[in-house]
């Protein structure tokens, strides 16, 4: 008879900056057999909702954290009995209260939007925000059906000397920032396709945790909805964010918001000038 062992299932650290997550739903119930690698539960963080796989074969014997609860990374969510060969034991989960809306839902905010609000408060409190603006003449561009976002991602990557650029995407539950990798190396056609693919996956809720980590800068194309100029907050962990506005009559305002600890006003001005030079080189 095989050895039977108990195993704790904990909330994994899906990203370097993750400190907590909210259990959205369980795919298995106590008494169910589970197989290693199959989805066990779904968790929502400030950046993405993702399915977490079972760490081993066995029987789910206890759920410790119910759907809707928010817990820190490393917290025990459930327990498995691995290596069991007999019928699973009859066990009870923690007493389940009638379904009640979470605090975020009562306030009209999704879990993701609540996390974003907390991060915005943190950004305001801990980062000395700076901003500079340039008006770009883009009248010489023939885009060949390529989106403006791809051009600005490429220009920023070249100007800042970075490879991984986040792209802010508005989704029904909040805002997510999938990362375009190797943006400085990709041809524009491939870069544009990659941006479109990430945006589609974001809006369909198909991003993974790895899709939203590692950004060295972010682009938020506020011009896509007609906004002429915006001053988004720099989030902790990044030196800045680029916000191109709507292109009107061949011109657009481009704002660079930056962390004054990462660069001073002169460095930010020069970076934005290089973004303009890189954009014009792509025309």
Order of helices and strands: EEEEEEEEHHEHEEEEHEEEH
Content of β-strand: 25-35%
CATH topology name of the largest domain, in short, is: Chloramphenicol Acetyltransferase
Shape: elongated
Compute the CA-based radius of gyration.
23 Å
Largest beta-sheet details: 6 strands, mixed
Query: How many β strands by DSSP?
Result: 16
Number of domains: 2
Question: Fraction of residues in helices?
Answer: 10-25%
Low-pLDDT runs: 85-106
Q: Please state the structural category.
A: alpha+beta
Tell me the number of helical segments per DSSP (H or I, 4 or more residues long).
5
CATH class of the largest domain: Alpha Beta
Average predicted local confidence, pLDDT: 86
> How far is it from the N-terminal to the C-terminal residue, by CA?
70 Å
CATH architecture of the largest domain: 2-Layer Sandwich
Strand order of the largest sheet: 9-16-15-14-10-13
The CATH homologous superfamily of the largest domain is called Chloramphenicol acetyltransferase-like domain
For the structure shown, list the relevant keywords.
Chloramphenicol Acetyltransferase; 283 residues; six-stranded mixed sheet; 23% helix; alpha+beta; OB fold (Dihydrolipoamide Acetyltransferase, E2P); elongated; 16 strands
Describe this structure in words.
With 283 residues, the chain is an alpha+beta fold. The chain folds into two domains: 5-100, OB fold (Dihydrolipoamide Acetyltransferase, E2P); 125-281, 2-Layer Sandwich (Chloramphenicol Acetyltransferase), CATH 3.30.559. It is 23% helix and 28% strand. It is built from five helices and 16 strands. The strands form four sheets. A six-stranded mixed β-sheet has the order 9-16-15-14-10-13, covered by helices on one side. A hairpin with a 2-residue loop joins strand 11 (169-171) and strand 12. The radius of gyration is 23 Å and the shape is elongated. The N and C termini lie far apart (70 Å). The model is unreliable at 85-106 (pLDDT under 50).
């Amino acid at each position: 008879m095989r050895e039977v062992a108990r195993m704790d299932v904990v909330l994994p650290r899906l990203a370097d900056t993750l400190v907590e997550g909210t259990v959205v739903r369980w795919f298995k119930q106590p008494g169910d057999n589970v197989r290693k690698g199959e989805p066990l539960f779904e968790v929502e963080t400030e950046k993405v909702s993702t399915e977490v796989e079972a760490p081993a074969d066995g029987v789910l014997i206890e759920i410790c954290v119910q759907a809707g609860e928010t817990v820190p990374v490393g917290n025990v969510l459930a327990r498995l009995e691995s290596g069991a060969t007999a019928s699973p034991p009859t066990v009870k989960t923690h007493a389940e209260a009638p379904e009640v809306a979470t605090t975020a839902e009562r306030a009209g905010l999704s879990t993701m939007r609540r996390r974003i609000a907390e991060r915005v408060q943190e950004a305001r409190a801990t980062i000395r925000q700076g901003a500079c603006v340039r008006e770009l003449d883009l009248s010489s561009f023939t885009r060949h059906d390529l989106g403006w976002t791809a051009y600005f991602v490429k220009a920023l990557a070249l100007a800042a000397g970075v490879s991984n650029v986040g792209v802010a995407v508005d989704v029904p539950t909040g805002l997510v920032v999938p990362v375009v990798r190797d943006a400085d190396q990709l041809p524009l056609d491939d870069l544009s396709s990659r941006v479109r693919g990430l945006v589609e996956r974001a809006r369909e809720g198909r991003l993974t945790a790895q899709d939203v980590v590692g950004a060295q800068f972010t682009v938020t194309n506020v011009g896509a909805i007609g906004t002429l100029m915006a001053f988004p907050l720099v989030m902790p962990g990044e030196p800045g964010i680029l916000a191109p506005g709507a292109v009107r009559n061949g011109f657009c305002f481009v704002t660079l918001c930056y962390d004054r600890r990462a660069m001073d006003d002169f460095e930010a001005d020069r970076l934005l000038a290089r973004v303009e030079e890189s954009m014009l080189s792509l025309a």
